[in-house]
Amino acid sequence: MSMDLNVNPIEFLNANEVLRRHYFRLRSQRQRIDRLPNSSRKEADIQRWNSAALQAREQFAARSAARYTLQYDAELPITAYREKIIDLLVHRQVLVLCGETGSGKSTQLPKFCLEAGLGKFGWIGHTQPRRIAARSISHRLAEEMETKGGDVVGYKVRFNDQTQPTSRIKLMTDGVLLAEIQRDRFLDAYDCIILDEAHERSLNIDLLMAYLQRLLPERPDLRVVITSATIDAEQYANHFTDAIGPAPIVLVEGRGFPVDIRYRGAMSARESQGGIDYDFDSMTQRFCDAIDELLGEGRGDILAFFATERDIRDAAKQLRGHLTDRGQQNSIEVLPLYARLTEAEQQRVFQPHRNQRIILATNVAESSLTVPGIRYVIDTGTARISRFAAKSKVQRLPIEPISQASANQRSGRCGRLGPGIAIRLYDEADFLSRAAFATPEIRRSDLASTIVHIKSLGIDDIET
């Protein structure tokens, strides 16, 4: 294909034939070249520009030709809201979606965005708080859309980019998107941003929502979806108020069966430097008693939540010995699940199996990441929570009680396949005394580096 070197760049470079980020980059480059005096160097620059423009058009054509399948599971509750959500994606810039555990929001929303015409000139970005969630949802979406990983659905986490030029949906951690803003201030690479698990209120999520709220008036074509299982919907809807009014809210009920909540005694705990220093031996013994109780209820996989990796290793050692004493070591498989495991080890929990499983996890399995086959849950009621100590000027990671919302999120993991049972290793009075929602990270962190980061994004008015 030959090109006329003197063609007007704006006329030749049709915005409907290249990705948005390529269009603005190539337009800027050509305008710079046109300001140069006529010379052999200018001719060489024009030739390189024409080659880059042709490559951008070919990439757009290949991306448009990529085939995928959009099918929806009628049993997922969010499927009943498909037409309503697509209509809102077309006519409104921001959508707040509250979907209970098991509603299918994390896997089906990107497909709704594709059906709404998004993803043509940029990615559909889908953020997750954790790398393991971004990878697992990416694999699940690629499987549902009948494509290879990376072809249409890819993911990007720290040190690992599994996207391709043909990718339309990009799963990533919220930190990755925040880093990309440094070199793409208007997020031209994206047609839509889905901020999932906003209830966690991490620093990255809060910064992204603040930045997007400022960006939306300058990017009227950008769509933003805020989604979570436990969220103060009205607060977020008011934050993204536009000329029409607050952002619309869609409430999706979960595919939940009844869950029997059982309380099995308070932990032997005492306040220790602002955290919980508990008797781990007592807790593991009550954990093993809870395992025996659930094994007597019938077959089904068990998901147990612990605060730390060390707790998981100690509990796994104790549990394997306990199962050996009962003669069940060959019929029950014990698997750990936490963020520092390799990807291959993490994927073991998603593989088909015959034996009953007991999965020992940190809070990575609390949201987004759906472990299949879970009928029972055991909740120790604690988690490591980052907190800044103002006196010592140190960011600490004490073990603290989780909020009521997190406890309900954990128990909801066992009500997907049928009636479930959740055993909480603490008293009901202890549960009722806990905060309704987790404290936002911005209120328990040192903000010095955050302020510097905000300044680097060109935001001078930090207080508002």
Question: Main attributes?
Answer:
six-stranded parallel beta sheet; 464 residues; alpha/beta; single chain; Rossmann fold; 15 helices; 20 strands
Distance between the termini: 52 Å
CATH hierarchy class name of the largest domain: Alpha Beta
Structurally, how many domains make up the residues?
A: 3
Give the helix tally.
Answer: 15
CATH topology of the largest domain: Rossmann fold
Query: Which regions have little confidence, pLDDT < 50, spanning 5+ residues?
Result: 1-11, 267-278
Specify the CATH architecture of the largest domain: 3-Layer(aba) Sandwich
User: What is the helical fraction, as a range of percent?
Assistant: 25-40%
Number of strands: 20
Q: How would you classify the helix and strand content by structural class?
A: alpha/beta
What percentage of the residues does DSSP assign to strands (E)?
Answer: 15-25%
> Main sheet, how many strands, which sense, barrel?
8 strands, mixed
CATH homologous superfamily (4th level) name of the largest domain: P-loop containing nucleotide triphosphate hydrolases
Mean pLDDT comes to 88
- Rough shape? globular
Strand order of the largest sheet: 4-3-5-2-6-7-1-8
- What value does the Rg take, in angstroms? 25 Å
Description:
With 464 residues, the protein is of the alpha/beta class. The chain folds into three domains: 57 residues; 189 residues, P-loop containing nucleotide triphosphate hydrolases (Rossmann fold, 3-Layer(aba) Sandwich), CATH 3.40.50; 175 residues, P-loop containing nucleotide triphosphate hydrolases (Rossmann fold), CATH 3.40.50. 36% of the residues lie in helices and 20% in strands. It contains 15 helices and 20 strands. An eight-stranded mixed beta sheet has the order 4-3-5-2-6-7-1-8, with helices on both faces. Helix 7 packs across helix 8 and helix 10 packs across helix 11. The longest helix has 26 residues.
